[in-house]
Amino acid sequence: MLIIGPPGSGKGTQAERISERLGVVAISTGDIFRANVKGETPLGIEAKKYMDAGDFVPDSVTNNMVRDRLSQSDVENGFLLDGYPRTTAQVDYLDQILAEGEQELDVVLQLTADDEELVARLLGRAKETGRSDDNETVIRHRLDLYHEQTEAVVAKYAERGILTQVDGIGGIDEVTDRVLTAIESAKAV
Ligand code: AMP
Q: Which residue, of 22, 51, 101, 129, has the fewest CB within 10 Å?
């Protein structure tokens, strides 16, 4: 499965909940990058400059990282990718990895929310977590990139008939209920 959504849509939170409920491992590229930044690894040092500016980390770094992660044994019974792919080039790369492993995506879930709601949420989160990419200029840039690049990813999966959209506005539990219902009905198709 994939979970796709604009910054601030709660995809990380929902991904963790789906992972617990369905017993599939959740893999967040943003979390992997942040762990590397914290550990000051070469990957983290490289990624940080892009993340702080709200830019995408280059595919040369991101794709290999995802390939490595998906080669680990805990993904054998399925996985939920959060935050990847974000560009159509990443879709092509993921297609290759999956084809090599004779795997297929079952469901692509998109969380939707209005931009102004997202900016307000993210500014709130900035106060709580102090994430270095949660200031208004960077937030708006991340949203622009989502519209410019990631919506094309969503369109690709819609064409393939595996896209399910869920309204991300509401309480966390309410959205989780919607998400789980949407996954159940998507799997039943
Ligand atoms: P997230 O936690 O998903 O919002 O990701 C935080 C940041 O990590 C993004 O703003 C990007 O700088 C970087 N990042 C995460 N996933 C990707 C990806 N698939 N491609 C490029 N950069 C990414």
A: 129
